[in-house]
Amino acid sequence: MKKIKYLTNRDLLAEIHRSKNTFCSYVDPDYHQYDIILPNLEKINLRTIAEAKRNRAARLAKEAHETAVAAAGKKIPAKQFDVDYRKMEKKDLIFRIMTYEHIPGDLSRKKTKKSTADSHVKVNFPPFQHWKFDEKDNLICVGKSHWVGGMHNGEFDPNCGKATNELALMWMKLCERYATRGNVRGYTYNDEMRGQAILQLAQIGLQFDESKSQNPFAYYTAAVTNSFVRIINIEKRNQNIRDDILEMNGMNPSWTRQNEGNKSLNGSTKAKSKTKTKSRKRS
Predict the structure, then answer these.
(1) Which of 241, 261, 206 is nearest to 23 (CA)?
(2) Rg for the chain (alpha carbons), in Å?
(3) Claim to verify: residue 18 and residue 64 sit in the same structural domain
(4) Beta strand 36-38 with 95-98: parallel, antiparallel or unpaired?
(5) Do 184 and 170 share a structural domain?
(6) How many domains does the chain have?
(7) Do 176 and 141 fall within a single domain?
(8) Residue 67 placed within a domain
(9) For residues 40 and 26, what is the distance between their CA atoms, to the nearest angstrom?
(10) Dmax over Cα atoms in the chain, in whole Å?
């Protein structure tokens, strides 16, 4: 297991893809890599097929260049690995279709249904299917998420996979680095904030939707920020309750409450002095 020094969207996307693949079943293991993401089969047309070919050509060229650089141990011009997308065959393309067709329905899960997901069993990330053209130019399903077994004789299983160890380490590294920021590192409950953030990422980490964004770093950072702010607000509320109880019993509250009281007194004193100064000038 390699040590993670820094995080990039590219590495995060790769590990998210590997993690989601553990929840999927494919006719052939090579069909796990998609070339384009579409909302439904009706969106497969000449334009999206051409876009999928360009995406596949760019990916294959990049993989070939990286392999050559790793083997040679030196920089190699990437242009010589370019692939002409116009020479690609349509049957080699893989289309990821975002759909709930293979997810069992559950009408009792939510009373008010605001989306398609509310009418189906809850899953840990948006479900999808992989489709491709066969030799007769017909579209066939070659992969399903949250699935075990064949495409026709398999069964739905939402707990068949897990997040990879590398992705878990990335979540931990992100929380550790956020905990060292100047606006949060001074809190005595910094460990609690970091633990809550890791728990939050473990719960929603795979919900990132590649069809809507290619920036998982921003998605995870927002989740971590919300977790830290939530713990800060809870601790402040608990501290106010403790201070109120101490004051009710004639005891000194925390230094934070005392400083707030001093600041309010100083502010009122300054306001009174300004008022007196203005009245003297008028007289």
Answers:
(1) 206
(2) 28
(3) no
(4) parallel
(5) yes
(6) 2
(7) no
(8) yes
(9) 19
(10) 99
Please tell me whether residues 67 and 79 are part of one structural domain.
yes
Cβ atoms of 157 and 146 within 8 Å: the answer is yes
Distance in angstroms (rounded) separating the CA atoms of residues 216 and 205: 9
Alpha helices, DSSP H, located in the chain: 9-21, 46-72, 165-178, 190-204, 216-248, 255-282
Measured distance CA(16)–CA(20) in Å, rounded: 6
Distance CA 283, CA 280 (A): 5
Residues 17 and 81 in one domain: no
Residue 282 lies in a domain: no
Query: Is pLDDT larger for residue 79 or for residue 270?
Result: 79
- Encode pLDDT of 171-222 as tens digits: 999 999 999 999 899 888 999 999 999 999 999 999 999 999 999 999 999 9
Smallest CA-to-CA distance from 135 within 178, 191, 91, 83 is with 91
Q: Which of 181, 182, 179 is nearest to 231 (CA)?
A: 179
Query: In terms of residue numbers, what domain contains 4?
Result: 1-22+162-277
**Is 33 exposed, middle or buried (CB count within 10 Å of its CB: 0-12, 13-18, 19+)?**
middle
Residue with tokens 């590398």: 166
Confidence category of residue 264, pLDDT binned at 50, 70, 90:
low
What end-to-end distance do the CA atoms of the chain give, in Å?
80
Residue 283 lies in a domain: no
pLDDT digits (tens, 9 = 90+) for 90-131: 999 999 999 999 999 988 888 888 888 899 999 999 999 999
Strands (E), 84-176: 95-98, 128-133, 139-145, 147-148, 155-156
81 burial type by CB count under 10 A (0-12 exposed, 13-18 middle, 19+ buried): middle
User: What does the alpha-carbon distance between residue 190 and residue 168 come to, in Å, rounded to a whole number?
Assistant: 20
Q: Over pLDDT 90: what percentage of the chain?
A: 65
DSSP SS3 for 35: coil
